[in-house]
Write a structure and sequence with these properties.
Helix content: 55-70%
Radius of gyration: 19 Å
Number of helices: 6
Structural class: mainly alpha
Number of strands: 0
Strand content: under 5%
Oligomer: single chain
Largest sheet: none
């Protein structure tokens, strides 16, 4: 599978058409025609596309499979679009998104709080490594200290009794 990346980010219209082809297009609202998303719709449409892709991946390539053949094939396809030089920022972004989603969507228990902080710590460690490799030691140190903070918060959450 060859890489066929677009020269620029996809437009709201292109994302909407992809969602429509996948059967996941949102229903039009009272102020919008069915097939006319605006640039303001881009981020919500991307969120829908992410959810669709991740839900499909969960069903087709479970992480619990041993050996992880399907997950490996999924990752091979992903890597055709994610440039290796930019993979650390992508991974960090995904971890930040995971932490935020866990905080917004799940009740605050010691386990969910620890998971949120662990995801944030992992994101900051990846960013620290990325900036260190790109000769930006100041930003790397900032991310390193943020990671230590989140790890301490995760450990603190884990020291509380579980429900």
């Amino acid at each position: 599978m060859a890489r066929a990346s677009a020269p620029k980010p996809a437009s709201a219209q292109a994302i909407f058409h992809a969602l429509k082809a996948l059967g996941a297009a949102p229903q039009p609202g009272p102020s919008r025609h069915a097939d006319s998303p605006t640039p303001r719709d881009t981020l919500p449409l991307l969120g829908i596309l992410l959810a669709k892709a991740e839900t499909d991946a969960l069903h087709r390539a479970p992480a619990s499979q041993d050996p992880p053949t399907a997950l490996t094939r999924l990752l091979a396809g992903y890597q055709t679009q994610a440039p290796s030089a930019g993979s650390l920022p992508l991974l960090a972004h995904r971890l930040h998104r995971t932490a935020l989603e866990a905080a917004l969507e799940h009740p605050a228990t010691p386990l969910t709080q620890a998971a949120q902080h662990a995801a944030q710590a992992a994101a900051h460690l990846l960013q620290a490594h990325h900036h260190l490799n790109n000769i930006d030691p100041s930003t790397s140190r900032t991310h390193y200290h943020q990671a230590r903070h989140h790890l301490a918060q995760a450990q603190k959450a884990l020291s509380r009794p579980c429900p």
